Amino acid sequence: MTIKHTVAVSSIPVGCRTYSVGEGSEAAFKALWHSAKSELPSEFLQYVQHVLFSRHSPTGDMACFPCPLREQEAAAALKALEGCAAAAIADVRCMKRGQKISVNLETVTCFLMSAYITNIDGLDKSSPKVKEQIPDTDLNQAQSNLYRRLSAGLYETRNPGEYYHIHGSLEATTTLNMIGLPAFLPDVNDYHQCINIIEGAVKQFSAAELDALNQKYRQAGVPVLTSARYQRSAHGRTMTSLPLFTVRPLGQHTPPMSLPMTADGPSQCLEGLRVIELCRVIAGPTIGRSLAAHGASVLKITSSQLPDVPFFQVDVNTGKHTTSLHLKDPDDLAIFEDLLTTADVIIDGYRPGAVAALGYRPEDLAARAAQRGRGIVYVAEDCFGGTEIGAEWAGRPGWQQIADCVTGVAWEQGWFMGLDEPVIPPFPMSDYGTGCVGTIAALSGIYRRATEGGSWICRTSLSQYDTFLLSLGTYPADVQDKLRREHDPRFFELRHNDSVDEIGGRALRSMKALHPTLFVDKWMQSAYSEGFGGTVAWPKEPLEVEGLKIGHVRPTRPNGFDKPTWEDWEKDETLLNV
Predict the structure, then answer these.
(1) DSSP code of residue 566
(2) Distance CA 420, CA 416 (A)
(3) Burial level of 87, CB count in 10 A (0-12/13-18/19+)?
(4) Residues linked to residue 324 through DSSP beta bridges, in sequence order
(5) Given CA atoms 167, 316, 87, 70 in this order, what sign does their dihedral have?
(6) Torsion angle, CA of 513/428/209/199, rounded to 10 degrees?
(7) CA-CA-CA-CA torsion sign (29, 227, 387, 317)
(8) For residues 49 and 426, what is the distance between their CA atoms, to the nearest angstrom?
(9) How many Å apart are CA 182 and CA 191, to the nearest integer?
(10) What is the average per-residue pLDDT within 541-559?
(11) Whether the Cβ atoms of residue 257 and residue 451 lie closer than 8 Å to each other
(12) What span, in angstroms and rounded, lies between the C-alpha atoms of 139 and 477?
């Protein structure tokens, strides 16, 4: 395992080599595979010495985000382990190749802010005009105006110094009404006025009272804990018994299932594999996007009656087909049943129990798979984790900001910014990190199905990723000082109650000024998307495995764009040669 420098060391400015992200990635990678060893096929570990962390500029080796935690290193390590998994699966398929696995550090950094730099015809998430090219899946109008968007936010409670994150990002009305506010305030459009109104309402309650309300109304929300308090909580104590992800046998044994053969032989390690993705927002769909980058046919199934954040689809639907089925409708259910008969992998990104309530418990799906004589791999990603051991908060709903708040990540960000209050970190980096973890878990299950047989259930969560991230520690004091000196002072004016859009927007402007080399076309790929009616540009895959092609053979599209079938999928292999 080495760091590959593709620029001369002498070209690195004096004073910039006190900390190396590449060396930090090596350390994170070692910590990762040691901690996950119990869940990994031993064949994956045969490749750990063949990993290279490469960069093409001094920026690639620098801590870039205005954050204290080692997000770049964690993601690079996860991508490296994903590469080891892909190499081992290629061996099972007898694909001739070399052994080198390379992770590009600049592209890893771009990947972690993908939702903010992916664009349609140059229009990114922040552009009002981009909405004209994206179907409106914000069915509950939760994103329709500033006041409703801020129903998802971190606010101080009645008790000074106590904070709670409410989360109405997909269902603002329930959250606002829950704290005594009207669903709409059409005359209120000022950012700080909206914050003051919502925080004023939150301050009528303690964290315990808000928690009780959230559970009563089935909303996402958590008290904002330090890492130490999380580890002392009943849920946190229970979660210490779990690794970053788990991979367990599920149901009856079936014979080892070789991966499907293709006419010309596969160029991608998962070519021919069929994946059903039942997910929304970012973390779960990132698993599907990554499996698609390894050649799997990923069919994302959403319901036209369930909301989703519109712009995120531009980012996470890359490489997939997307279709709409409402599983409470008998006709749609029959189509879903037909799709299931030949599916190899199911990704479940909903709150634990939601898919099971529709009649699709993992155990029941494994029993069906046993009847057909070919196992399945069930991949479950959620917020809190611990479903397999009955952890206290396992069944609660949640999203990235919820996990960052409950595990201690938000407090670390606030302290780094010189505050005695928590702040949500910029960009949905925990979402992407969790997606990487889920991908490794899925690849482990796929490998075991191919070599040992049977069905497998793979589980991970946003909270488990955050716990791994925190275990890597914060940056050394001198690195944190440097980040505070060099980033835009306006970023450090942010407070606990600033929105994720405000935090992400200021961080992005600072990153563009400080690290312009990250925002050049070299790190991006583009293709015309029929579904979005424009040319979409998105970050290239950070991972290379010698002798394999990693990338997407179809551009992104909106939810529900394609017919619900496995047949006649379009494929543009020229996209793999970029």
Answers:
(1) S
(2) 9
(3) buried
(4) 302
(5) negative
(6) 30
(7) negative
(8) 33
(9) 17
(10) 95
(11) no
(12) 45
> Whole-structure pTM over 0.85, yes or no?
yes
Give dist(CA 321, CA 335) in Å, integer.
15
Q: Which of 8-22, 251-265, 500-514 has the lowest mean pLDDT?
A: 8-22
DSSP 519: G
Of the chain, the end-to-end C-alpha distance in Å amounts to: 26
Closest Cα partner for 338 from 317, 368, 302? 368
Name residues whose C-beta falls within 8 Å of residue 264's C-beta, 6 or more positions apart in sequence: none
pLDDT digits (tens, 9 = 90+) for 447-496: 999 999 999 999 999 999 999 999 999 999 999 999 999 999 999 999 99
Backbone angle region of 543, left / alpha / beta, with phi > 0 → left and psi within -120 to 50 → alpha: beta
Residue 464 to residue 104: CA distance in whole angstroms: 25
Q: For residue 93, what are its two tokens?
A: 């398929």
> What is the rounded distance in angstroms from the CA atom of residue 570 to the CA atom of residue 578?
18
Helix (H, G, I), strand (E, B) or coil at 277: strand
Closest CA to 47 of 391, 543, 491: 543
| pLDDT value for 143 | 83
Sign of dihedral through CA atoms 324, 328, 334, 339?
Answer: positive
Is there a contact between 29 and 1 (Cβ–Cβ < 8 Å)? yes
Amino acid at 369: A
What pLDDT is recorded for position 8? 27
5-19, 160-174, 538-552: which range is least confident on average?
Answer: 5-19
The predicted pLDDT at position 1 comes to: 57
DSSP secondary structure string for all residues of 129-150: GGGGGS----TT-TTSSHHHHT
Residue 218: closest CA among 350, 20, 26 = 350
Measured CA to CA, the distance from residue 29 to residue 1 in angstroms comes to 9
Q: Residue 401 phi/psi, 5° resolution?
A: -65, -35
Name the pLDDT band for 12 (thresholds 50, 70, 90).
very low
Q: How many residues does the chain have?
A: 578
Residues 6+ apart with CB under 8 A from 187: none
- Residue 551, burial from CB neighbour count under 10 angstroms (0-12, 13-18, 19+): buried
Q: How many Å is the maximal CA-CA distance in the chain?
A: 67
Sheet holding 220-223, edge to edge: 152-156, 163-167, 220-223
What is the Cα–Cα distance from 405 to 155, expressed in whole angstroms?
A: 11
pLDDT at residue 361, as a whole number: 95
Question: In the chain, how many H helices and how many E strands?
Answer: 21, 17
CA atoms within 13 A on the CB side of 9: 5
Separation of alpha carbons 412 and 69, rounded Å: 8
Distance CA 138, CA 106 (A): 33
